Amino acid sequence: MNAECPVAVITGAGAGIGRACAVRFAREGARVVVVDRTEADGRETVALLTAGGAEALFVRADVAAEDQCRRFARAAVEAYGRIDVLVANAGIRVFGTVLEATEEDWDRLLGVNLKGVAFSCKAALPRMIEQKAGAIVMIGSTTALTGRANMPLYDAAKFGVLSLTRSLAATHGKDGIRVNAVCPSFTLTDFHVNRAAAQGTSPAELRERNRGYGLLGRAGEPEDIAAAVSFLAGSDASFITGQYLIVDGGYSIGTQKQQTY
Ligand SMILES: NC(=O)c1ccc[n+]([C@@H]2O[C@H](COP(=O)([O-])OP(=O)(O)OC[C@H]3O[C@@H](n4cnc5c(N)ncnc54)[C@H](O)[C@@H]3O)[C@@H](O)[C@H]2O)c1
User: Fold this and answer.
1) Side-chain half-sphere of 138: how many Cα atoms within 13 Å?
2) pLDDT at position 81 over 90
3) What is the pLDDT of residues 85-101, one digit of tens each?
4) CA 202 from centre of chain
């Protein structure tokens, strides 16, 4: 990001890719609004940022609830007067086939991963429209494009996120707002590290098992994704909107090793 002291609101910034984005944006001079539904994790991110000399604010919010999204946008404007960047990152997983999924599973997954993204954008957009400027970066997924067997709810929602990216870009280009998405593939975030730990696998073992993944021979790191988010949010991408950037170490090209738990 190149604008002077911009304000970046990042959902799901208490862990994983969201936290890596928060750290990166803070390092680049942004004031960061850390949004997460888990208070301890969100506060830990803020502590990390402020220890590095940045300005940061935590707002507890569940993005599946529209009023809570309005609350984080209001808090950002009250504290810092503007919203330059929204990273709509918060997401959950539901595993299992369409045959196995219940109506409750669909509601929960779509509530966070699709409606939550739309509510986050709806909350931030009015301020960006007033400013006649803003950048939104959504986090999609490579597997929304490639397909796979075991996460159809998640992948369908992520495909929806890419559609939302294009619709919002088409609607708000005239307002000076750019909307893009980053599509990560398997990235070693807190989610995967905790999941592996529950099965007795250490982060080092998890990395080792995924040697050979994709074309570059490794899984992604949260910082790999944050770098792409920062690019799309910043002025170097000022003529890019309605696009999604696949950041997957070549995974989607094919003939690659799949992730291993
Ligand atoms: N890690 C991967 O392999 C990968 C791959 C493709 C896409 N993604 C996407 O990247 C994003 C981040 O994933 P991650 O791996 O860093 O996840 P993570 O589970 O490590 O971190 C997610 C963070 O979001 C927060 N969160 C979850 N639901 C929320 C809600 N309803 N409201 C507010 N905060 C909420 C969690 O508390 C957590 O702090 C997600 O959208 C995910 O779908 C991840």
Assistant:
1) 36
2) yes
3) 999 999 999 999 999 99
4) 25
Do 202 and 88 share a structural domain? no
Residue 97 counted as domain residue: yes
Are 105 and 197 in the same domain? no
Q: What is the DSSP string of 105-126?
A: HHHHHHIIIIIHHHHHHHHHHH
252 vs 141: CA distance, rounded Å: 11
Q: β-strands 56-60, 85-88: how paired?
A: unpaired
Whether ligand 1 lies within 6 angstroms of the CB of 16 is answered as yes
Ligand 1 atom nearest residue 219's Cα: 3
Alpha helices (H) along 28-151: 39-51, 66-80, 103-110, 116-131, 142-146
Q: Is residue 260 part of a domain?
A: no
pLDDT at 2 over 50: no
Over residues 67-94, the mean pLDDT reads 98
* pTM of the full structure: 0.96
> Which residue, judged by its Cα, is nearest atom 25 of ligand 1?
12
Task: Decide: 112 in ligand 1 pocket, CB within 6 A.
Answer: yes
Q: Which domain holds residue 109?
A: 7-185+224-248
